[in-house]
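Handoff note, outgoing to incoming analyst
You'll be picking up this chain. Sequence as last confirmed:
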Amino acid sequence: MSADTAKHPSAEQDTTGRIRKGVPARDWWIIGLLLAFFTLNFADKAAIGIAAPDIEADLGLDASQYGMVSSSFFWLFAVGAIFLTMGFQRLNWRWSAALLMLTWLLSMAPLTAPTTLTVLVGSRVLLGFFEGPTYALCQSIVTDRFSPQRRAFAGSVVNSGSSLGPLVASPLLTWIIVTWSWHSGFVALIAAGAVWLVVWLWVTRHEPGAWRLGAVAAGSEQLPEDPNGDIDVPFFSLLKNRSFWGVVLLGSAGFLVTSLKVAWLPSFLNQGMGYAQSTVGLLITLPYALAIVVLLTAGLLSGRLLKAGFSSRVARSYLTMGYLCFSGLTMIAFTQLPPGGLQVVLVMLSFSINSVAFALGLAGAADFLPRKHRAGFFGCANALYSLAGIVAPWVLGVVVNAGRTAAEGYAHGFLIIGITICVLAVSGGLLLHPERSREVLLAEAARRRAKESTR
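Most recent structure output, in case you need it:
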């Protein structure tokens, strides 16, 4: 058993330090609401993809222009991920989540009526800015509430909303859009978001643990002892660590798939593979359904590997690398096949792996991060790997336009993306080394204490 694995208990501790079995019901209530939060966030992304043909026809857009609209969501995503996450460290997580949902609703409001390309892009940019810190916020709450052995699974439950949203919303939104208009889809999403906001504020109204991110609010129950509290280094030392860049590269590979799945997969199934829009609404649910299974089993497998004595590098880094390489290789394979059942199967497999990068990658980072720096670290990593969401949809649109046919353009584009995913996955998996990072950071902390003692 590794030193890192032995350091952490297999069960949570209560406020007196006693070991407690299982997970309190209220923790699962919070996890369930965060899951719903993620579900709504990604239902919005699915709506844009499903409405793509109607938006292109309504506004007279070509493939590259639509690619620009899709990528615009990520233009300020990184800025929001960094600055809003830092700002939320001064605000308790109850109101942080509520403010994010409120701005989500306001950002989508302009899309409920006939609009212009400028307004559409502006709405997507604002939405991306305010969604930037969502993942860091949710994962910080999960990390504080669950032990390392349960953390990957709990994070996977929350992150499964990225698949559950499109899975649940795609058939319903397709029906709403086909029956009425693409604007009606956003009316439905705003109504659902308003209901979530009311429920969240009601359920968390007496929550005693609504502390600030990375801190404990006065008068609240105490958090268990921080297992990495002995790593007392400046925040920027964490950003210089090789594991930070491993998380960024793994996340970039996952984000390539995420951005293309929500922006281009419906159009690929429709224009590249020849399926009717009504059929696409059903087919698009398959990779999201499979992704939930993949994500939850990956989280369980990671926790079991830790319990079995494997290092965090194996249970987090190598496991994530393997999943992502599988995604890239299946993407390369389906570009070499004609339309048909086998190609559909490979497409579904390729687009079902992406969320593993975020759940397991950040769980690996949490194994060496001190509590006070987790939210900032997650926010900065999220900001950097989200840049893939700016580039990928636009590049694929350009490649599709350059092809002699839509099918040829999609094949060339996804071939390039598949190769890129494999390169990023291997590079990130080798760089993310939680045990070594902990040793390096502990040594730096010791040097700093020795230096201060001699003054």
